[in-house]
From TrEMBL:
CDD domains named in the record: Bbox2_TRIM16-like, SPRY_PRY_C-I_1
Top-rank taxon: Eukaryota
Domain B box-type: 121-161
GO biological process, alphabetically ordered: innate immune response
Listed GO CC annotations: cytoplasm
Organism: Oncorhynchus mykiss (Rainbow trout)
GO molecular function: zinc ion binding
The keyword Coiled coil belongs to this UniProt entry's keyword annotation: yes
Coiled coil: 201-246
Entry keyword set: Coiled coil, Immunity, Innate immunity, Metal-binding, Zinc, Zinc-finger
Protein name stated in the entry: E3 ubiquitin-protein ligase TRIM39-like
All copies of domain RING-type, residue ranges: 15-78
B30.2/SPRY domain: residues covered: 281-475
């Protein structure tokens, strides 16, 4: 704790001119105490010099520029105020260059504490003791005067304002250095993100270019097959004409001579099954490339229990849903009560998103996206007009896209994992067989005006025949 002087110290009764105990003490208008003889002697010796300087400076000051906005004005100037050069913490006054001169030439005033110009100097005085706030109480975290340390803050930890400011400036410097490190780290993160986005764009562009090249290659190959087949058709038509003419001839000798070559020469036909297989393999590669590209838009989907039908059981991690006797859930406006549906927690109103769901072991299921305002109560028609974009499995090999009227899908394999992709701005909802790397169905030309939520419908249990859960699966980008 800082030491403090007595309330009535000897120093308070010393004249700052003769440095002795006051003789006929007087107080000037600015609050300073002197001996009557000392102050008169000083005034008599300095009056002429000071007055002359004041005249010169005042004349110069009248034509000087006013203080700039935000600058502290001189408290002594009359008329046009000049910019203050210093503020005196003893006089509680701000002085311009002219009016500061007494503080620079008069010995008693030289002892005053001058600082860079500040406003509201009265705020630097203790309101209780009317003394300068020159100490800081660390206990109460407030500025105090010398008298405060003898009263309310007597037992507190106090230091000079300069010492406290020095420590705080050091702490501010340390904090500022830490902030600079954080800024550098964030700038590094921004740079990395920009680099990742740039690489992603390049990869996507390269994938698109590869897809276009594959498509063109398939088209060229198909055109070659078509050209060969058309030539084959022309040759077959010519032979058909020859055979018809030979069958109608009346020249028996000609018929018998040409008959062997006409009958036994095999037609120049190509192996169509081989051609179809080659084309199918090339065509299958196209959705595979596209699926790989859209998997980069994978999002983490978690089921929202507040939307789940009361007959649905959700896993603790919110990644699985199956039909069964679930714990009682209070009804709320978000909960479905007419269909065994549950939504994802997060909706999307811009950009692209993709997620995958394991449907292995299920005989029936519904997957897709719904708009936020979809009616949660009662029976819902599974169609885009009512806010659902859906693909369903019904019975053994019946897959349905609910474009109205519903469209039966012809799938060569039973999907074990279904990928759902949405391009909000493009108005596109697509479904993929992830393991077969093939396209299932798409809704195109859609108009979305609100948030879209992933939705899941595990359907009825069917006495255990459809008890397997729908499982939200992490997207494997290495397929």
């Amino acid at each position: 704790m800082a030491s403090s002087s007595s309330l009535l110290s000897e120093e308070q009764f010393l004249c700052s001119i003769c440095l002795d105990v006051f003789t006929e003490p007087v107080t000037t208008s600015c609050g300073h105490n002197f001996c009557m003889a000392c102050i008169r002697m000083y005034w008599n010796s300095k009056d002429l010099e000071v007055v002359e300087n004041f005249k010169k400076r005042r004349e110069k000051g009248r034509h000087g520029p006013p203080p700039e906005p935000g600058k502290v004005a001189c408290d002594v100037c009359t008329g046009m105020k000049r910019k203050a050069l210093k503020s005196c913490l003893v006089c509680l006054t701000s002085y311009c260059e002219t009016h500061l001169e007494p503080h620079q030439i008069a010995s008693p005033l030289k002892r005053h504490k001058l600082i860079n110009p500040v406003e509201n100097l009265e705020d630097r005085m203790c309101k209780k003791h009317d003394r300068l706030l020159e100490l800081f109480c660390r206990t109460d975290q407030t500025c105090v005067c010398q008298f405060c340390t003898e009263a309310d803050h007597k037992t507190h930890d106090t230091v000079s304002i300069e010492e406290e400011c020095g420590e705080r400036k050091a702490q501010l410097g340390k904090t500022e250095a830490e902030v600079q490190l954080i800024i550098q780290d964030r700038q590094k993160n921004v740079k990395q993100i920009k680099l990742s986005v740039d690489l992603s764009k390049k990869d996507a562009k390269r994938e698109i270019e590869n897809t276009v090249q594959r498509q063109k290659a398939v088209e060229r190959q198909a055109e070659g097959f078509i050209k060969d087949l058309e030539q084959e058709i022309t040759e077959l038509k010519r032979r058909s004409t020859d055979l018809r003419q030979l069958s109608q001839t009346e020249d028996h000798l000609q018929l018998l001579q040409n008959y062997p070559s006409a009958v036994y020469k095999p037609p120049p036909t190509k192996n169509m099954s081989e051609i179809s297989e080659i084309l199918n393999k090339e065509m299958e590669k196209l959705p595979e490339v596209k699926l790989k590209r859209i998997q980069q838009y994978a999002v983490d989907v978690t089921l929202d229990p507040d939307t789940a039908h009361h007959k649905l059981i959700l896993s603790e991690d919110g990644k699985q849903v199956r039909t069964g006797d679930a714990p009682h859930r209070p009804d709320n406006p978000k909960r479905f009560d007419g269909h065994r549906f549950v939504l994802g927690k997060v909706g999307f109103s811009t950009g692209r998103f993709y997620y995958e769901v394991i449907v292995k072991g299920k005989a029936r299921w519904n997957l897709g996206v719904v708009r936020e305002s979809i009616d949660r109560k009662g029976i819902i028609i599974l169609r885009p007009e009512d806010g659902l974009w859906t693909v369903s499995r019904r019975d053994v090999n019946v897959y349905v896209s609910w474009i109205f009227p519903p469209v039966l899908l012809s799938l060569r394999k039973k999907p074990q994992k279904v990928g759902v992709f949405v391009d909000y701005e493009e108005g596109l909802v697509s479904f993929y067989d992830v393991e077969a790397r093939s396209h299932i169905s798409s809704y195109t030309g859609c108009t979305f005006t609100e948030k879209l939520f992933p939705y899941f419908g595990p359907s009825d249990n069917d006495d255990g025949q459809n008890s397997a859960p729908l499982i939200i699966s992490p997207v494997n980008h290495t397929h």
